[in-house]
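[Q] Does anyone have a clean structure-token version of this?
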Amino acid sequence: MKLGIVQYPSSDDLGGFQVGVEDVFFGTTGITANIGYSQSLNADRVHFEGNLFYSLFSLGNYFNLAPVVGYHYLETEDYQEDGLNVGLQLRLVLSRTDAADIRLTQSFLSPGKETEVGLTTLAVGYAVSDQLRLGVEIQKQNAAVSKDSRVGVLTQWQFP
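[A] Here you go.
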């Protein structure tokens, strides 16, 4: 479970919040699910997403690739888009105990449509204890209408 504060630097540094659930495992299949919501305090920026990831390599490796498929709703001051979200995530685990990792995700909301939005997300996390992680998430949105960005500082609680 994650909770944090976000800022939208490309939009007059609007502040906001982010909540979500990350890495819900489906047994040992390599499939995980994420769901998240973020919003600026004035409600000009809204994100809702639910995605499935399939790790191509064994869980626990230092390196993994995962195709992404899901749903994303995105609202900014200039445009609104929702629909299919597809992409690829690269994960680098920096410690044997899974205490630190870097995730780079490139996905496309409404791929192939005139209203397609490219989403590039860089997330870095570090576990300070068995159940508490600190993280930073940076997302760039590239749409034909405009570009936007979001930066979040997150606290994540891990459950066994």
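[Q] Thanks! Anything notable?
[A] The two ends are 12 Å apart (CA to CA).
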